Amino acid sequence: MGDSYLDLVNTPLPGRIAKALGLPRPSVLRRYTPGEAVAAQPVLVTGSGAGAEALADVLLGWDVEVRRHVLPGEKLGAAVVVLDRAASPEDLAAPMLELGQAVRLLVPGGRVVGLLRSSADTADPAEAAARQGIDGALRSMAHELRGGATANGIVLRGNATTTDPTTLGALRFLLSGRSAYVDGQFIEVTSTPAGGVAGAAARPAAEGTPDRPLAGRTAVVTGAARGIGAKIAEVLARDGARVVAVDVPAAGEQLARVANTVGGTALQLDITAPDAATRILDHVGQRYGVLDIVVHNAGITRDKLLANMDAARWDSVIAVNIASQLHMNERLLASPVFSDTGRIISLASTSGIAGNRGQSNYAASKAGVIGMVRAQAAAFDDGGRTINAVAPGFIETDMTAKIPPLTRQVARRLSSLQQGGLPVDVAETVAFLASDAAAGVNGQVLRVCGQNLVGA
Fold it and tell me: CATH classification of 37-195 is 3.40.640.10, yes or no?
């Protein structure tokens, strides 16, 4: 299941040969370790205006070395470009060109993050052009970076500022190793009351101690017996959550192992059963009293060209991948067991964004997840509960290991990071969306795909 080519080109002689031949040279990505510093090297904060100055001051409070301008030859851990005041396309030149010089100085695994306002929040054509222009520039930059570096953006909606707790929560995620396989993506944030996120996003993690942002929370993870679901359960537990691992009875032995590993409980059930939601709520209510986090991870594939598709293949995928989530969410929202600050995170897919040959049923179900999340977000738009989706791209799992070798190698190299992601990359993004730091993120679809060539 591992990427032997990646391992090979990260050794001296094969790496030099690959460079000489012009072959892809994917880098080992910088992934999260509990207690890590936000940045071990200085962080450049570029951009004019009060928003940039205020953000630089906050980063200093995170015990980060901050630079306001590029110092020739100095290595940078990250570059943050603040463009929240851009009013016309001409306003982009100076900060973006300075950012262009900064990327030359990024260390391997460095981060670029842009802060901008949404073009949907203005009726002024020049202002909208500038804001949309930032989007295009940052996505293009992400394609240019090497050494495992990534470029992403934070879109400020409404009256959100550069230093709101929810903005800082998104920034911490994008600067950290948690976002290793998130590249060329944008997170929209809205302002929330400081109490709504418990100030967690604004606080620097305690040095030398694990960060446990989900301590005291109870999480349900469906499809938890293996693969991405098992890793989600593990990461949520690492971050402090009590985990209820759910899967079908046929996976009972594996499910029990996962539950034991994370110190949680196992619940065997078919999520398409009419009483599935009731059983989950009863289980959580009796043991923990409240349900804080629901991760709809369970999913199946039954691939076939549409011309050869039968009703059984179509119906089974729809039933598991989207209909079960709709039924469960309806019950959750009607139950006093589901917390007033509850988080729902659904697993979508890049196949649901751009389609994929032979997966019309699967793509319909995953696009359906995206539609559900965006529609249901309106009911959650009160600063309390949130619902979001994570859309993985090519992730190294037992399922992708069955893809023919040549096809698998091509799929790996199509992303800007020139490699497949790992289940932990999906799990880290789920854990972020489940945390207080993401209280202002609602109705979003966050791709974990290394900026591959599938979709936008």
Answer: no
pLDDT tens digits, 44-100: 999 988 999 999 999 999 989 999 998 888 999 999 999 999 999 999 999 999 999
For the chain, residues classed under CATH 3.40.50.720 are 37-195, 218-448
> Measured between alpha carbons, how far is 409 from 406 in angstroms, rounded to an integer?
5
Task: Give the three-class secondary structure for 260.
Answer: helix
Q: Retrieve residue 16's tokens.
A: 């030099």
Q: In Å, what is the CA distance from 321 to each residue of 123, 152, 315, 386?
A: 38, 28, 10, 20
Catalytic residues: 362
pTM over 0.70: yes
Helix, strand, coil fractions of the chain, as percent rounded to 5: 45, 20, 40
Q: What is the pLDDT of residue 456?
A: 43
Q: What counts of helices (H) and strands (E) characterise the chain?
A: 15, 13
Phi and psi, residue 391, nearest 5° = -115, 95
- Are 106 and 40 in contact by the 8 Å Cβ rule? The answer is no
| Euclidean distance between CA atoms 440 and 429, whole angstroms | 15
Any idea what DSSP says for residue 70?
Answer: P
Question: What mean pLDDT comes out for the span 351-375?
Answer: 89
DSSP letter at 250? G
First to last CA, the chain: 27
Which residue intervals of 349-422 are DSSP H helices?
A: 351-354, 360-380, 405-413
Residue 103: helix, strand or coil by DSSP? helix
Gyration radius of the chain over CA positions? 22
Taking alpha carbons only, the member of 402, 446, 379, 392 closest to residue 424 is 392
SS3 sequence of 302-326: CCCCHHHCCHHHHHHHHHHHHHHHH
Q: Does domain 218-448 have CATH number 3.40.50.720?
A: yes
d(CA 354, CA 455): 4
